Amino acid sequence: MEPGRLIFNTSGSGAGQMLFMDCGPGAVGAGATSMFHRGGMPLLGGMDEGRGVKRPFFTSPDDMLEEEYYDEQLPEKKRRLTPEQVHLLERSFEEENKLEPERKTELARKLGLQPRQVAVWFQNRRARWKTKTLERDFDRLKASFDALRADHDALLQDNHRLRSQVVTLTEKMQDKEGPDGSFGAAVDASQSELPAAEAKAAVSGAAEEQAGAESLEMQQQQLHVKAEERLSPGSGGSAVLDARDALLGCGGVVDSSVESYYFPGGGGTCADEYHDCVMGPVAGGIQSEEDEGAGSDEGCSYYADDPAAVFFAAAGHGHNNHHHHADDVDDQDDGQISWWMWN
DNA sequence: TTGTGTTTTATTGCCTCC
DNA sequence: GGAGGCAATAAAACACAA
């Protein structure tokens, strides 16, 4: 830079142009407009725009200390820091965003600013940094939330599909059960007084039924495994969402007389997209979690006492309420447990 | 040129810490 | 009690569209 001239910025945000100002000895001193802060010290140098006297916004630190320079108590105007000053301040801020007194003094001396200005700049810079950080955190959390919601929606769909399968299989099983609920009815017929041909046919039919029942049982086992996988915290998905999904999609009641399983129907139902949950008494080996024999698998509780009933529950916070109230989707994480089963 | 929105500089009041 | 930090705010400087 040539002597007697200073470069300063006329606009902020790095988008301003650079101006070259005359700043010879005559430009500084009496008659020049300066800005003053408390105590009569200037905040920044400036040109006398009103009287056409050119003066640098910033002179050397030594000039800044000349008493004559600050004599005038004219209305202060804010002046922006030069890019060079901002650059140095930014570098200093990157090193340490807090300002010790020694560093403040040193920076003020280097930049030709009041220590107070340096302190203010750091204060405002910290505020900007905090705002940026908050914005970044918000974006990150929002992205995470969106991903979780997508995952949740997918799980809901999956849950609906699995429940449809359970309904279908349950109906098939009911069709194949005898009036007493056993699969052995047809087989027993072979030991009755039927004619040999009829008995043979009955046995054959019973065998087919038995094979069919075994097939159904295998499918149910697969469903169970699938459901358990989905409820397991180690399944790769969100354990919270998995449990929540199980809660949302729960449903079922065991009829105490025939141990049959229904979907939404009797008991207390709440049928909207999220909760077609059916609450009701459980027969045949269903126990409360407080009872002996209840297994637990980190948020996925199951009961294997009764071979006729495969049962598991998803726990919110490990609480022990088996009657899930699903009046509102926002009530799901109240620690209640839901269950469903088939036989 | 003017109105409007944004950014930067600075102030004020409150709080915490030593 | 003084120093320093922070939040809220004012106000000047600036950008930009109409």
TrEMBL record:
<comment type="similarity">
    <text>Belongs to the HD-ZIP homeobox family. Class I subfamily.</text>
</comment>
<dbReference type="InterPro" id="IPR000047">
    <property type="entry name" value="HTH_motif"/>
</dbReference>
<feature type="domain" description="Homeobox">
    <location>
        <begin position="72"/>
        <end position="132"/>
    </location>
</feature>
<dbReference type="GO" id="GO:0005634">
    <property type="term" value="C:nucleus"/>
</dbReference>
<keyword id="KW-0238">DNA-binding</keyword>
<keyword id="KW-0805">Transcription regulation</keyword>
<dbReference type="InterPro" id="IPR001356">
    <property type="entry name" value="HD"/>
</dbReference>
<dbReference type="GO" id="GO:0000981">
    <property type="term" value="F:DNA-binding transcription factor activity, RNA polymerase II-specific"/>
</dbReference>
<dbReference type="GO" id="GO:0043565">
    <property type="term" value="F:sequence-specific DNA binding"/>
</dbReference>
<keyword id="KW-0371">Homeobox</keyword>
<protein>
    <recommendedName>
        <fullName>Homeobox-leucine zipper protein</fullName>
    </recommendedName>
</protein>
<keyword id="KW-0539">Nucleus</keyword>
<feature type="compositionally biased region" description="Low complexity">
    <location>
        <begin position="196"/>
        <end position="217"/>
    </location>
</feature>
<dbReference type="GO" id="GO:0045893">
    <property type="term" value="P:positive regulation of DNA-templated transcription"/>
</dbReference>
<feature type="DNA-binding region" description="Homeobox">
    <location>
        <begin position="74"/>
        <end position="133"/>
    </location>
</feature>
<dbReference type="Pfam" id="PF00046">
    <property type="entry name" value="Homeodomain"/>
</dbReference>
<dbReference type="InterPro" id="IPR045224">
    <property type="entry name" value="HDZip_class_I_plant"/>
</dbReference>
<dbReference type="InterPro" id="IPR017970">
    <property type="entry name" value="Homeobox_CS"/>
</dbReference>
<feature type="region of interest" description="Disordered">
    <location>
        <begin position="171"/>
        <end position="221"/>
    </location>
</feature>
<keyword id="KW-0804">Transcription</keyword>
<dbReference type="InterPro" id="IPR003106">
    <property type="entry name" value="Leu_zip_homeo"/>
</dbReference>
<dbReference type="GO" id="GO:0042802">
    <property type="term" value="F:identical protein binding"/>
</dbReference>
<dbReference type="Pfam" id="PF02183">
    <property type="entry name" value="HALZ"/>
</dbReference>
<dbReference type="InterPro" id="IPR009057">
    <property type="entry name" value="Homeodomain-like_sf"/>
</dbReference>
<comment type="function">
    <text>Transcription factor.</text>
</comment>
